[in-house]
């Protein structure tokens, strides 16, 4: 049985089932101190993963659009203020581990 100290440092995801994190994540600056984010999802589950992540972001108060291209599905956010970028990144990747 794993104890709390071990669980805090494990590399395994806490969530079971499909991986919701994108296959590629791009952040770029826009005018006026704002940013855009594209999350790219590939493979046969890409569209479902992108849609699930859109729902998770909506739960954090962030609106995103989902579209498909020749390489998969792209979830786009922006323009976002600096603080909203951090909220979005935490929604994509989870909150940082605290030691």
Q: Which stretches are low in confidence, meaning pLDDT under 50 for 5 or more residues running?
A: 6-17
Give the number of DSSP strands.
4
CATH domain class? Alpha Beta
CATH architecture: 2-Layer Sandwich
Q: How do the strands of the widest beta sheet line up side by side?
A: 1-2-4-3
Radius of gyration: 15 Å
Query: Tell me about the biggest sheet?
Result: 4 strands, antiparallel
Ends distance: 21 Å
CATH fold name, please?
Alpha-Beta Plaits
How many structural domains can be distinguished in the coordinates?
1
Overall average pLDDT: 80
* Cα shape: globular
Number of helical regions: 3
Class derived from helix and strand content = alpha+beta
Question: How would you sum up this structure, described in words?
Answer:
With 99 residues, the chain is α+β, with helices and mostly antiparallel strands. The protein has one domain (19-93): Alpha-Beta Plaits (2-Layer Sandwich). Helix content is 31%, strand content 27%. The chain is built from 3 helices and 4 strands; from the N terminus they run αββαββα. The chain has helices spanning 4-8, 46-59, 82-93, and strands spanning 24-29, 35-41, 65-69, 72-80. A 4-stranded antiparallel beta sheet has the order 1-2-4-3. A hairpin with a 2-residue loop joins strand 3 and strand 4. The longest helix is centred in the middle third of the chain and has 14 residues, at 46-59. The chain is globular and about 35 Å long. The model is unreliable at 6-17 (pLDDT under 50).
């Amino acid at each position: 049985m794993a104890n709390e100290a071990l669980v805090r440092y494990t590399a395994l995801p806490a969530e079971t089932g499909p991986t919701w994190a994108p296959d590629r994540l791009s952040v770029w600056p826009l005018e006026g101190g704002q940013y855009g984010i594209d999350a790219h999802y590939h493979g046969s589950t890409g569209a479902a993963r992108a849609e699930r992540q859109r729902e998770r972001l909506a739960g954090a108060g962030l609106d995103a659009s989902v579209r498909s291209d020749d390489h998969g599905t792209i979830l786009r956010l922006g323009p976002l203020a600096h603080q909203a970028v951090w909220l979005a990144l935490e929604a994509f990747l989870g909150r940082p581990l605290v030691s």
